[in-house]
Automatic annotation (TrEMBL):
Membrane-crossing segments per the record: none
Protein name: DUF448 domain-containing protein
Sequence ranges assigned to domain YlxR in this UniProt record: 9-82
Amino acid sequence: MKQKKIPMRKSLVSGEQFPKKQLLRVVYTKAGEISIDPNGKANGRGAYIALQNREAQMAKKKRVFDRAFSAKIADAFYDELIAYVEHQVARKALLEATYSAEQAPDYD
């Protein structure tokens, strides 16, 4: 059976290629609005960064979306981006966490 092709995208910050599902898409619309696109399907020009706290911090420091979209992006958006990435990383860590039987509550 044929192996399904995994779409790869490049992170603006690090320049590394990642599977599309491990990246966060940021969209710039023709109306000049910028937003985080968690589903990856919004209309507009998209740019990707890895879902890592370090990448979000570097995105703000380097102002990568200003260059990618050739527009002035407000600091408030970068702060929102950092908060969103931190939240997603924390959720991912909780999903991957395993617990032992000793930590489970006793319902007897």
